[in-house]
Amino acid sequence: MVLGRGFFVTPSDSVAIIAANAQEAIPYFTNGPKGLARSMPTSGALDRVAEKLNLPFFEVPTGWKFFGNLMDAEKLSICGEESFGTGSDHIREKDGIWAVLAWLSIIAYRNKDKKPGEKLVSVADVVQEHWATYGRNFFSRYDYEECDSEGANKMIQFLRDLVSKGIPGDKYGNYTLQFADDFTYTDPVDGSVVTKQGVRFVFTDGSRIIFRLSGTGSAGATVRIYIEQFEPDASKHEMDAQIALKPLIDLALSVSKLKDFTGRDKPT
To answer: Where do the Alpha-D-phosphohexomutase alpha/beta/alpha domain residues begin and end (predicted)?
Structure first.
């Protein structure tokens, strides 16, 4: 977890900011990263960095082994998950200490010309400058733990049926559908295919709603909802994420009929 003074950095933003600053601030990346990757539910902040820096980019299912394959094939240098896992190809595993050192390197680089007594560039400054350049991806995850497995599975099946009928241009409240699917991944290294990795609703403004059943809970089923909204307007970047995302959160709950299927009216 990366925290500045009174400032929380989401894992999705953290990996994007590390990638954006890696070549100039971290000696290991003097020649630039080979490629960037994120897990599918992680926000699209990293995508925007890859596009601007013209780097290969991969969106993989949740699970570190998918990053490992790309690293072994020398296609990937920096990667991360929304659940705080961040890493690079110096090791075939997530590395929290490395992530903190990467941030310290960025902070040191950004302050290298400061004279004693001058105001230093802070974590918040680095993040806000990044948002000003790339836009902000507001992001939140709702977890509903230990749900009745039958109800949770019925909800996911209901959503799969819904996306199978979805067509671009469908209206969901104020949002227009770009596409909807159940995420499938074809590994570019070994050609293996992984299906049913999460139901996605992706809208034309860059907003996304994703539903997954997670296998990491200790009992019953854990339903995870990922909500993301892209905001290019810098005057709105300081909004509280829960306020900025409320229309999408309300939409996610109504589209999924989560309360009907699981009986839950709030996340754990």
So the answer is: 12-115
SS3 225: strand
For range 121-134, the mean pLDDT: 97
d(CA 168, CA 232): 23
Bridge partners of 9? 2
- Rounded to an integer, what distance in angstroms lies between the CA atom of residue 191 and that of residue 134? 32
Distance CA 266, CA 253 (A): 10
| Residues 143, 268 contacting (CB under 8 angstroms) | yes
The answer to whether 228 and 138 have CB atoms below 8 angstroms apart is yes
Task: Identify whether the C-beta of residue 151 lies closer than 8 Å to the C-beta of residue 263.
Answer: yes
**H/E segment holding residue 264:** none
3-state secondary structure (DSSP) of residue 123? helix
Q: Which helix (H) or strand (E) holds 146?
A: strand 136-147
CA 76 to CA 196: how far, in whole Å? 24
Considering the chain, what is the average pLDDT of its residues?
94
Q: What is the pLDDT of residues 62-109, one digit of tens each?
A: 989 999 999 999 999 999 999 999 999 999 999 999 999 999 999 999
Q: Are strands 221-231 and 193-194 parallel, antiparallel or unpaired?
A: unpaired
